[in-house]
Amino acid sequence: KNTVPQAASLLLEKLMLLVHIRPLPAGSGGKTPPPAPGYYDTSCFKRGDLLEVPRTLFIHFGIYLGENRVAHLMPDILPSITSDRRQIQQMVTNKRLILGVIARTASVRVDTVEDFAYGGSILVNHMDRLFEDQVLSNEEAARRAEKLVGGTAYSLLWNNCEHFVTYCRYGAPVSFQTDKFCETVKMIIRDQRSVLASVLVGLASIVCLGVAPSTTLPTIFIPFFLWMAG
Q: What is the pLDDT of residues 85-110, one digit of tens each?
């Protein structure tokens, strides 16, 4: 019986949506304007640099291609239902993203730095320290990214935005975020009492506070989901 791994995978998919989903202000009509061009100083970026943008729970990654362009992998339903490049290239909406996660489809797309980062802070080549001598040349990283532009399969555990950039820059598709998540799940499973305790604490927090802080969401919902599935 593999209900626990399946539950963990499903939960991770739900949580990883927070990496991409953008809050829509009231009265916006479903659209949020991106930062104006020039919001980021791209003069310090080099072609082939690995860019990462910390989000609420996870990190979004991309490869800088030069001239204010970033290649990055995002869940998207459109590549599986149309070949219209103009339509696909339009900014990915939350609906397209969610349907892409459900259908396990995505696209490696090229966007401006502003659209890629969407107001978040950008770290440059921050992962290089983890790979030491495995770093490929910047030009090789950029060429790999450009070759992969287009529709692709999507998996939050096996083929997400981090797998894409680590393959391009280091030659090996890995995701430290999902590895860390899986280790956390294993620790939780080892102690069913802590699972139940976390569930109760999480529910109590929601009841007493109305809403749980974003930093405690994994603590509350991961044990709850696994407990219910187990």
A: 888 888 888 889 888 888 999 999 99
**pLDDT tens per residue, range 143-174:** 999 999 999 999 888 899 999 999 999 999 99
pTM above 0.90, yes or no: no
Q: Name the residue type at position 50.
A: L
* Burial (0-12, 13-18, 19+ Cβ within 10 Å), 215: exposed
- Contacts of residue 85, defined as CB under 8 A and 6 or more positions apart, other chains included, come to none
Asked if 176 and 84 count as a contact pair (C-beta separation under 8 A), the reply is no
Whole-number Å distance between alpha carbons of 78 and 73 = 13
Residue type at position 66: G
Residues 6+ apart with CB under 8 A from 221: 11, 15, 202
Distance of CA 212 to the CA centre of its chain: 22
Q: Could you give the CA distance from residue 100 to residue 224 in angstroms, rounded to a whole number?
A: 25
Measured distance CA(51)–CA(127) in Å, rounded: 9
Catalytic residues: 161
